[in-house]
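Question (not urgent): is this output format expected?
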Amino acid sequence: MRTDDFDYDLPPEQIAQTPAEPRDTSRLLVLSRENNSVIHDRFFNLGRYLRPGDLLVANQSRVLPARLLGRKATGGKVELLLLRRQDHLTWEALVGGRGVRPGMELVVVGQRDGADSDMRAEVVDVLPHGGRLVRFNQPIEPALPALGTMPLPPYITAQLPDQERYQTVYSTKEGSAAAPTAGLHFTPALLDQLKAQDIGWTTVTLHVGLDTFRPVQVDDPAQHQMHSEWFELGAEAAAAINTARAEGRRVIAVGTTTVRVLETVAQHAEAAGTAALAPWAGDTRIFIYPPYRFRVVDGLITNFHLPKSTLMMLVSALAGRERILAAYAEAVNAGYRFFSFGDAMLIV
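Got this back:
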């Protein structure tokens, strides 16, 4: 298996620049592993392809407005993208700008409460993946709504007037550097409709970093190193999932980040000699690629992913590489929109 095995051709004009409006009018490709069929529909008809008793599990993480503009003492411009908090002042960050070295002080640009920002950050260290460890002179999180902007992926060049369109309607816990995009298609009305169909719903948390979305740079995927991401499976979600599995009902993950939570906890449970999931919080570096034996996830709602990415490998592990590539080719030919603001796929 080579990284190039997960490549495909995508016309640039099919990279979605704006979200569907309303959210649930995005297209939906339904891929059946049982009979190898493909159905084209709209996301608001998701319930047609689910069964009463199915349990949907979604990632409730919210995206931080974590992109900050700054300047060096020399006046040179820099850009910070906060990735992960280490303590109340220190963050892992990507820093755009030349010659940003340890010991350098950066001034965060912008206004807060009608006055120029007094926020500063010292560059503490250079990280192995090329990022920086930065320490602010005061906690940055209270200032992010005023000073920060949404960290949209670089392939989205259009402006986003409503920043909430890069959040799911059920997001509650801030901490992500990117949206768990499979959930962007849900509306409150659709959630109510699914509930009326006796389809269950529970949530987990995984604060999304950027590494998940990057193309794999090595020829052999087994040599790719994942950065860690913080996750939490609460007691209520663990109980709901265990009950569904005990009763033979399907567990369907909303998004690849949810898959990574569930399969991480399931691996811990298996190592402990049990099939039942226990509440768990910690870091995960799980990298799912073919062949992989899924322990919890029976189905997946997901978007269309970047070529040669870890996410292409994850969905290929679930549905089969050839089946996924064929479905992607059909989606391209049918004019689907791809990536974060693009259309959706249901794998069952």
